[in-house]
Fold:
Amino acid sequence: MNRRIIVATATLLAIAGGLAGGLRGAGSATPPAPGTARVSSSGGAKARAAARGARPADTVLARVGREKITRADVQRRLNELPEPYRGNYSTPDGRQQFLDRMVEERVWLLGARKRGVDRRPELRRQLDQAERDLLIRTYVNELMAANPAPADSEAQAFYDAHLTDYRTPATVVLNHILLKSESEARRIKQWAKGREDWKKLVTRYSADTVTRASGGALGTVTREGNFAALGSQPALAESAFALGTVAGPGAIGGPYRSSRGWHVVKVDAVKAEALRPFDQVKSLIVRQLSQSRSQDYYKARLAAEKAALGVAVDSAAMRDFVSQRKTAQELFREGQEAGAPTARITAYRRLLHEYPESEVSPQAQFMVGFIYSEELKNYDEAEKAFHDLLRRYPKSELADSARWMIEHMRTEDAPAMMNVESDSSGRATGAMRRPTDKP
Structure:
C-alpha cells in the first residue's frame, strides 16, 4: 500500500472527526492538540516568507518531526472540502483552527507509523481493499462516462412502440347513497332529482357509515370497479360510466344493485381514456433506456477487458470449488440453527451420513435421541438413536449419558441439559447432569 492511500485514509478520518468538529465552532479560537505548539498566523508567515525571499505557497507553517506543513498543503486541503464547509474556514480564526487540526492529524499519523500500525496484517488488508475499491470504481466510472445518453429520436421511437404503456384509463368520480331496498332507492332518487339537497339526503338515509360523513364520496374509480369503500363492484362502475358518458357531470342515476345493497349515484366528473404526451414521459423513457444501455455497455466493456487480459477459467477446478461439501462442524452448526425439532434431526442425520467418524458425530447422534425424547416425546425412536450411539461410538464420552437416557427418559427423572449442542469438539463430558449428580 503506498503512502498516498494511508495519508488519504487518515485525512478522511480527520475531516470526519477533528475537522468536522471545527465546523461547529469556526471563527472561535480552539486550544491546540496536547503536545503541539500553536502555529503562527498567516500574516506573520507572509512577513517571514517575504524576508527570506520564499514564495508564499512554499512557506512552512508548521513542522511535525521532519515533516513540513506548508501554506500550499493547507490551501489544498481547504480546496478539497465540500463547498458548504469551506466558508467556515475563511476567517483568520477559522484558518488557524484548520491548521491546528492538520498538525494534530499529522502527529497521530506519524505516531501510528512509528509504532507499526500501518504494518499490521488486518489493517493492511483493509487498506488494500480500500485501494482496490477506489481504483475499480474510478476506472469503471471513467469507462461508463463514455457511454452516450439516448438521443431524443431513440426515446421517441421507444414511445411510439409502447403507446399502450402510456395510456391513462377512463375514470369516473362518484358519490352515492346506499339503501337496503330498491323501492327506497327509487324514492330517494326522485327526491335527489327534485332538487333536494344531496348531502342532507346522504346524511339522513345512506346506510354506508364509511362515506356518509363525506357526502357519500366514493372517489375516483376505473372500469375495473375497485372501490376503496365498497371493494370490487365492476357492475356498479360500468353503470356509473354509462350514466356519466350519456348525461355528464351532475347526473343522478340508479338504483343500481351491488353486493352491498342498492345505490343511488351522483356523477361528479368523467374522464375519458387518454394517452400521456411524449414530452410528459420523455424523462422517464430516457432513464429506462439509459439503464438498459448502461447494462449492455458494461457487459460489452467487461468482455473486452477480459479478452484483452486473457481471462481463463479452469472449469474442473471451478466445479470442484463451488460443489465442495460442507465440513462436519458446519453441518453440526446447521443442525443447531435449523429451528424445528424435525429439521434439526434431519440435519444431524445428514452429518452422520456424510461424516460417520467425525469428532462431532457422537454429539449429533446423541442430539437425535435427545430431541426425540425431550421435545417430540417419541421414546421408541429416541431409544433407537441412543442404542445406535452405544453401538457406533462405544468409547464416546456421551455413552454414559445415552445409557442413563435409555433407563430414565420414560420416567419423571427429567435430565437437566447443559448445552450439549454448543460443544462441537465432541468432548461433552458433564454436558448432561443426571438428577443424582452433584452440582
About this structure: The chain has three domains: 3-128, 170-272, 328-433. The chain has 17 helices and twelve strands. The two ends are 56 Å apart (CA to CA).
